[in-house]
Design goal:
alpha+beta, Butyryl-Coa Dehydrogenase, subunit A, domain 1, Butyryl-CoA Dehydrogenase, subunit A, domain 2, Butyryl-CoA Dehydrogenase, subunit A, domain 3, four-stranded mixed beta sheet, four-stranded antiparallel beta sheet, globular
Length: 383
Amino acid sequence: MSNELQEELNIFKEMVVRFIENEVAPQYEEWEKNKIIPKSFYQKMGNEGLLCCDLPEEYGGFGVPVDFNFLVVEELAKAGFFSLSANVIVHADIAAHYILNIGTEEQKKKYLPKMVTGEWIGAICMTEPGAGSDLQAMKTYAKKTDDGWNISGSKTFISNGQNASIYIVAAKTNLEVSGSKGTTLFLVDGDKEGFQRGQNLHKLGQHASDTSELFFDNVNVTQADMLGNLDEGFLGLMHELPRERLACAVAGVGHAQGALNLALDYIKERQAFGAPIARIQDIRQKIAEMATEVELHSIMIEKYTELLVQRKLSADQAAMAKYSCTEMEGKVIDMALQMFGGYGYMTEYPISRFYVDARVQRIYGGTSEIMKEIIGKGVIGRI
């Protein structure tokens, strides 16, 4: 990373941290209780230039490197506001880039400027009740009509499911071939007839992140709503998954760093046997483990972000990042909570939210088990 880019990121980071302290922190508890972040808040983020930073200027973005996007995600996670961090990833690092990279010029001009301002929120709809990580097993089907397509089926665990205005929907369009060859992506506006948002799902953690079931009952879309080429949706998914998984890894490292910061503050204050518990050898050794893990994975993220910018990040490298960083996140946060003793189990202590928010990181975006399968195949294939 050049010195000039680092200086720009440092200035941007100061702005992001101030925004989090002034605009997110005072309201976050209320969002967690309501189990949703107000749609208007995304417009506030857009007004501050915190959404889709790396989109080209012609579509409303700033044309800056992806590092700026990742910095927003990382700082939100570090501060413990993981619901917002996760939702921003889906909107700015996943949905917007599907449209940017495989959309038509008309689609880019229609959707991207409003996604930059936060007026429209994006969601990606892949997972189904009977098909989790196995995307080829999806049953949502799009039937050809005279003027377009007719979509029927359901999706679940969809982040931004309640708030989104534009949904990228994966549906089978050719039942005669495998899912990898007969799946197409469609852009479905949230006000389409036949489209229905189900309940906002009740989760173990990330309560403010709206996660929903979605239903498609003969939803009509036109040819202009097709995202990418017919029957090549799976290729689009595979092309965009490395960025998605790296973004999850970035959030994981930020989250782990935030938990480490909480633990460091606590062990310096907490007294046991007449002295701060930071003086206990076992505590210091655990801190050493945690800090080393965070440092190593931060270096990994920096390298892989450079590869992403150069379009050289491979599928198995992205899987390595997602697998290793999120597993590390869970380990470090668990160790941090342990240092709080019984207080760590109390919800009034932020570390408890870190703990429950982190758990799903090893599930969505591809489970750790699926990541290891991808890594194994990739490594063996290079031998």
